[in-house]
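Database export, one record per block. Field names are fixed; values are copied verbatim from the stored entry.
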Amino acid sequence: MKLPPDVQFDEKVRLFIWRPQGLINESAVNKIITILSDMEASLAEPFNRFSDTSAAEAADLNFKYIFHVSLFRRFSYRGLPIKSAILATTETHLHYSKLHAILTQGSPIKVRIFQEFAAAAAWLGVPIDLLQAQGASKKAET
């Protein structure tokens, strides 16, 4: 599967990374949900997720949409437990991330929100340089 430029998948550690830039809106989130759903259906083993919102300048979302998406993910993902780490660097991203975490509680999707790469990397059990954008671009070049 060809991934868009803001998405990376590291097969070695089974980690899906999304680095949205600019505006996060319903179209961007719908695109990521579609990619995730396709990958979940085609890959035999579960994989963790990391969303880095540090390059996202704004979010054009609302409570109703986040509620809908979170419940959709909660009920559509039927695999083994996975971790979804969100690096939230603004109050808006933090607010929507907390709402998503609350709405997915009790599902196999374990969401945690972070404000530092190191804490997210430790929770996911991956090297910090994989989560940092510089590490990702270095990996792509090698």
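Remark 1: Strands lie at 7-10, 15-18, 22-25, 48-52, 56-60, 82-87, 109-114.
Remark 2: The helical segments are 26-42, 63-76, 91-104, 117-124, 128-131, 133-141.
End of record.
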